[in-house]
Amino acid sequence: MVRALIGFTPIPLWGSVHLQLKSGGYVLLLQVDRDMEIAVGKLGLVKFNKGVYAYVGSALGGLEHRVTRHLQRKKHQFWHIDYLTSSQQVKVSKVLFIDSEEKKECFLSMMIDTSLGVIVVKKGFGSSDCKCESHLYHLPKYSIPLVAEELRVKLDAYGLRLNTLPIRTKPSGVS
User: Structure pTM?
Assistant: First the structure.
């Protein structure tokens, strides 16, 4: 039912290893190659400056499926982030996650918003179902490895382990 609703077929992006990711919070670290504007559903036209972005989300009972979907360009645009990840000028460079049976996206959002010198891209982006200002942040002073390390350190202080998913963008055997 969900696959029919969002109109996509998952492909294995982590090779033959089945990760068995069920639930948790995640952070997509994105690289936007150039300044651009994208119409994002009811949010309207949103300006994205070239640089590094962090998007947070949660998936209870379908983390691997959700992240796989975010990595695909061709998909029905259902969530705000879909409009951004569908663009050829945007690359999901790293996926970080926390194993959890509870929603952690607001906690992750707070960790990024309060400690990494971020710019809120658009109020309500990805956060229409909670009280957070946004779940998408521009990090103009950071590289992707530095964002990942800073976030790892912040979460360690709370006893939370931040994991990294390996990303493979083409199925095996395709060059």
Answer: 0.84
| 73, 86 Cβ separation under 8 angstroms | yes
| Per-residue model confidence as pLDDT tens digits over 142-173 | 999 999 999 999 999 999 999 998 776 554 44
For the record, the structure tokens of 113 come out as 């918003």
Rounded distance, CA 106 to CA 85, Å?
Answer: 21
First to last CA, the chain: 33
Do residues 85 and 53 make contact, with C-beta atoms less than 8 angstroms apart? no
- Largest interatomic CA distance in the chain: 45
Query: Do the beta carbons of residue 147 and residue 52 sit within 8 Å?
Result: yes
Under a CB-based contact definition with an 8 Å cutoff, are residues 25 and 58 in contact? yes
- Is residue 139 within 8 A of residue 67, CB to CB? The reply is no
Positive or negative torsion for Cα 63, 67, 70, 75:
negative
Structure tokens at 84: 């951004």
Given a cut of 70, is residue 137 above it in pLDDT? yes
Task: For residue 131, count other CB atoms closer than 10 A to its CB.
Answer: 6
Contacts of 79 (CB under 8 A, 6+ apart): 57, 126
